[in-house]
């Protein structure tokens, strides 16, 4: 059975940076991390070790999704959903999802693949650790929305990663 851990903290508290440091130390991980690089959100595919642009300036030639004052590439959301699809068959190791937020709770962003991933690994994975980055203000909503009955919560400010 998969083990779910919510990795949390305030906005811009270093959650993605802590995860990047953790995987650099040789952790057996798959999934994706969305760090800020030069003030713009990127999507780092852990398996491929490729950093992809995610947040962009509005008005470019590619399709974008507007979230408040931020513009994100639709193609990068598609890439993240593909990574989630590929993760559905994992049996062991660690899978990181950075981050689960309001868009996913509304059925957008990484959905519907995020829900499919959670259901698949919940029922079929033997020893998979799933780390989901969640803002501290959304912990209860995420736990309820995804029916995470047994979940650990790690706060970036007070606890280091295992």
How do the helices and strands line up, and which of them pair or pack?
Elements lengths: L2 E7 L5 H10 L4 E5 L2 E2 L2 E6 L4 E4 L1 E2 L7 E4 L2 E4 H14 L4 E9 L1 H4 L7 H12 L2 E9 L3 H7 L5 E5 L7
Parallel strand pairs: 1-10, 1-11, 2-9, 9-10
Antiparallel strand pairs: 2-4, 3-4, 4-5, 6-8, 7-8
Task: Describe the protein's architecture and organization.
This protein is 29% helix and 35% strand. The protein has 162 residues and is an alpha/beta fold. The protein has one domain (3-155): 3-Layer(aba) Sandwich (Rossmann fold), CATH 3.40.50. The strands form two sheets. Strands 1, 2, 3, 4, 5, 9, 10 and 11 form an eight-stranded mixed beta sheet that branches. It has a three-stranded antiparallel beta sheet with strand order 6-8-7. A hairpin with a 2-residue loop joins strand 7 and strand 8. The radius of gyration is 15 Å and the shape is globular. The two termini are 19 Å apart.
Number of H/I helices: 5
Number of domains: 1
What is the H/E order?
EHEEEEEEEHEHHEHE
Radius of gyration: 15 Å
The CATH architecture can be named as 3-Layer(aba) Sandwich
How much strand? 35-45%
Instruction: Examine the coordinates and then state which fold CATH places here, giving the name of the CATH topology.
Output: Rossmann fold
Tertiary shape? globular
* N- and C-termini, Cα separation: 19 Å
Mean pLDDT score = 91
Secondary structure class reads: alpha/beta
Unreliable spans are: none
The first-level CATH class is given as: Alpha Beta
Largest sheet: 8 strands, mixed
Task: Tell me how many strands there are.
Answer: 11
Name the CATH superfamily classification: P-loop containing nucleotide triphosphate hydrolases
Helix content: 25-40%
